[in-house]
């Protein structure tokens, strides 16, 4: 990967370490707060040209009420995971997906559990997050609980991805 190259809508700027092979297995956690799948795109840019295997994970949150309430259907969760896996397959990256269920507040532990079971050497999560899943608390818990590096694409990637798809700003910025 070179500086100035556009990969799957992500503009790569500055010095780039091309040795992505340091990660043999990566877990990419996805949720509905990241509709453009920046975590999947970021992981794909890390894995392109290497033998890295990817596990796309989605955690369905279950509310703690007298009767447990799941915030989304199983079908919605699998649709999200399938979209991530398909995007990785189109780039020639071996990937599979899993959907798991966890209580609200235990999402980070579920992601770490999936990463441990997969033998992951890194976890990638999205940087967008109006929803609870990748909100600040989940990211902080995941950072504390994870035995492997947690990678979060910089927030500016969404801006660069949009600009790369549209072309340069009319003002030249």
CATH homologous superfamily heading: HUPs
CATH architecture: 3-Layer(aba) Sandwich
Number of helices: 5
**Helix content class:** 25-40%
Poorly predicted tracts of residues? 1-20, 129-133, 159-173
Major beta-sheet overview: 6 strands, mixed
CATH domain class name = Alpha Beta
For the secondary structure, the number of strands is 8
Strand residue percentage: 15-25%
Order of helices and strands, N to C?
EEEHEEHEHEHEH
Distance between the termini: 24 Å
Q: What class, by secondary structure content?
A: alpha/beta
- What is the total domain count? 1
**Alpha-carbon Rg, integer:** 16 Å
CATH T-level topology: Rossmann fold
The overall pLDDT average reads 77
Q: Characterize the overall form.
A: globular
How would you portray this structure in words?
- This protein has 173 residues and is α/β, with parallel strands linked by helices.
- The protein has a single domain (6-166), classed as 3-Layer(aba) Sandwich (Rossmann fold).
- The chain is built from five helices and eight strands; from the N terminus they run E-E-E-H-E-E-H-E-H-E-H-E-H.
- It has helices at residues 38-47, 74-90, 107-118, 136-145, 156-166; strands spanning 6-7, 10-11, 25-29, 53-63, 69-70, 95-103, 122-125, 150-151.
- The strands form two sheets. Strands 3, 4, 5, 6, 7 and 8 form a six-stranded mixed β-sheet that branches. A two-stranded antiparallel sheet has the order 1-2.
- Helix 3 packs across helix 4 (136-145).
- The longest helix has 17 residues, at 74-90.
- The chain is globular.
- Residues 1-20, 129-133 and 159-173 have low confidence and may be disordered.
């Amino acid at each position: 990967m070179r500086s100035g190259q556009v990969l799957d809508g992500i503009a790569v700027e500055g010095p780039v370490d091309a040795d992505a092979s340091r990660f043999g297995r990566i877990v990419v956690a996805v949720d509905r707060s990241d509709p453009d799948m920046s975590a999947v795109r970021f992981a794909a840019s890390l894995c392109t040209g290497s033998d890295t295997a990817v596990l796309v994970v989605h955690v369905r949150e279950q509310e703690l009420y007298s009767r447990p309430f799941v915030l989304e259907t199983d079908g919605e969760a699998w649709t999200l995971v399938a979209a991530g896996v398909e995007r990785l397959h189109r780039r020639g990256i071996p990937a599979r997906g899993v959907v798991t269920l966890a209580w609200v507040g235990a999402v980070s532990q579920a992601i770490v559990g999936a990463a441990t079971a997969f033998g992951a050497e890194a976890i990638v999560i999205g940087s967008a997050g109006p929803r609870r899943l990748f909100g600040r608390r989940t990211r902080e818990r995941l950072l504390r609980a994870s035995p492997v590096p947690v990678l979060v694409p910089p927030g500016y990637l969404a801006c660069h991805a949009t600009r790369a798809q549209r072309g340069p700003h009319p003002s030249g910025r």
